[in-house]
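Sync notes, pocket subgroup
Present: LS, DG
LS reminded everyone that the earlier model was apo-only. Rerun requested with cytidine-5'-monophosphate included. Inputs:
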Amino acid sequence: MNGKRILLIIGGGIAAYKACELVRLIRKNGAEVTCVLTEGGSHFVTAMTLAALSENPVHTTLWDLKNEVEMGHIQLSRAADLVVVCPATADLMARMAAGIADDLATTLLLATDKPVLAVPAMNVRMWQHPATVRNVATLRGDGITVLEPDEGAMACGEYGPGRLPEPPEICAEIARLLAPASPGPLTGKHVLITAGPTHEPIDPVRYIANRSSGKQGFAIAAAAAQAGAQVTLIAGPVNLPTPPGVARIDVETARQMAAAVDAALPADVAIMVAAVADWRSADTAGQKIKKDGSGQVPPLHLVENPDILATLCKSDRRPALVVGFAAETNDVLAHAKAKLARKGADWIVANDVATHVMGGEINALHIVSAAGVDSLPEMPKDAAAAALVRKIADVLS
Ligand code: C5P
């Protein structure tokens, strides 16, 4: 951390007292700390304490005339190497997720172009409230690193997840985020990945879907980011956190996914893992289709969805390496070989979903290419992802 500058935003929660210890630890590790104290934070710790510990002025208001003449909020957030929000309260994260800038802290967070680490601490019910779950997912989707809180007894007398992690743990995460990204085998490459199912609406409450969990595609996105790639992950409706360092775009239907893939080009590599619905309802009813008691079933007319992979392979912006997936229940390799030719992909990665792959943790991949079949043994999905990414890096080099 030597010589690095941390902007530490302290929110209004009892865990704010641990931020004082964090200031000491960061400085012990050689970095400089500038503190921003929210109105709520100032009820738990004083600006005087933080100024003494950081040996820097503490900023508390947006309406500081001298600093604002110098565009203080822009300068503060740009001068830092990393912005840390600790404790990140439910309210502060909600305002961050909504892009609200109604005080110095949230204005800085909106103005910054630096990495942001949020360290939540709150009552267990607040942490588990659907609004907070939604906000944390939004922040992670925006590329903010949100630490998982610790579990244990809380200041409010309840027990569960929501405690601020101990300062040494937070400090280790800060060091990890500040570490210069060592070049990986995919550094400088843009990798475009689709993952998860698509949902094709029938009416406002019903849709056509499949059992894809998105786990394999998300694991590949994580492995590609770890290998140094710039990763764009286009995800259908799944319940998974965004892997660190991955830019995620959420979509619902095949047509939205096709548009998002097109908008994300150019890319060096495309890995189409999504289980795109082959068909959608020809017309989507504007209102819920009612059962009228006559025993008559409504007709469901299906039309074919665009084939995103085949379209990409024919495009004049085709990535240098295009990898498709084939989830099959029988004749896995024969279907994969046929798909390779039909789609125009460089590789088709086949997996047998007759057993429990969809939604499961384990996968056995068979990479089918013009060169033949390269079968990997059965392994956890993240190991399979890492192995596939290594093979991609090999052919690109
Ligand atoms: O044709 P099939 O669905 O078996 O092909 C699977 C491969 O094609 C996967 O890589 C999947 O992501 C991709 N695909 C697509 N668009 C579709 C259907 C499949 O990109 N409409």
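DG: The chain is about 35% helix and 25% strand.
LS: The mean pLDDT is 92.
Action: DG to write up.
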